[in-house]
Structures are given as C-alpha cells and as structure tokens.
C-alpha cells in the first residue's frame, strides 16, 4: 500500500505548476484561499496526493459537500494536467476547470477526467461538483 506522499516546502508542487510546494499549494492547504478556480482545483488535487481530507471538505461548497470525505491511501496520485479553464478569475462569479488526474490503484493505472464547477461566494472560491468524462 503506497500511503500518502509527503511534501516539504522546497519540493516541486504535486499539482505540476512548476512552483515549489511552499510557494504553491501549501498556502491553500494551510488556510489561504486561492484567488482563482484553477488554483483551488490544483490545491484540491494536491490534497489528494498528501492525504489532506480536511482541505477537501473545507473547500467543498456547503450546499453540495458530503458529510465526510474519506481518502484511500492505496490510491497513488501520479500527475495532473489541466485541459481547459473557463472563467474562474478574480472578479468572476463562476469557473470551470477540466483536468486529467493520473493515478494508480494497486497494479492498475487510471485517469480521472473531470470538468469541475466552482463558485465565488463569501470572498472565496468553492468546489461545487464535477462531471466525470
């Protein structure tokens, strides 16, 4: 069982932005809301990589989030590719981010292809839901 990855601030961020973890998703995981929907989506992916269910729950819109978020430590997240974004910038009210998230479950490789919806509310971005493609 692989378990969750650990990240030091100097490590490359798991979201694939090219920045260090400390300069990228660590800020969101430590409580500073991202300024774009894509930034929130990247931080949520990184939360899956490092096993931060708290971040996933706290960034899920209260109207659509499940009661509990349980992560499977046997799933190893292996990379994120942003396919497309629509809106989701400062000043927007809504945003969409389409992505591919590569993973390995045991001996099987897979790709989650999702188009996620985000909403700007109460001074921050929230994940609403996603359509798996």
TrEMBL record:
Lineage of source species: Bacteria, Bacillati, Actinomycetota, Actinomycetes, Micrococcales
Protein name: YchJ-like middle NTF2-like domain-containing protein
Coiled-coil zones: none
Pfam families: YchJ_M-like (PF17775)
Gene3D superfamilies assigned: 3.10.450.50
InterPro entries reported for this sequence: NTF2-like_dom_sf, YchJ-like_M
Annotated ranges, domain YchJ-like middle NTF2-like: 36-130
Entry superkingdom: Bacteria
Organism (species): Microbacterium caowuchunii
């Amino acid at each position: 069982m692989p378990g969750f990855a650990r990240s030091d601030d100097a490590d490359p961020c798991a979201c694939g932005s090219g920045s260090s973890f400390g300069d990228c998703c660590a800020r969101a995981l430590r409580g500073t809301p991202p300024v774009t929907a894509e930034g929130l989506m990247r931080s949520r992916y990184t939360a899956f990589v490092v096993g931060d269910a708290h971040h996933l729950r706290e960034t899920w819109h209260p109207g659509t989030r499940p009661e509990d978020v349980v992560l499977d430590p046997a799933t190893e997240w292996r990379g994120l590719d942003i396919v497309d974004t629509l809106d989701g910038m400062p000043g927007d009210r809504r945003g969409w981010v389409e992505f591919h998230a590569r993973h390995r479950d045991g001996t099987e490789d897979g790709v989650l292809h999702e188009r996620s919806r985000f909403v700007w509310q109460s001074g921050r971005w929230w994940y609403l839901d996603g359509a798996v493609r």
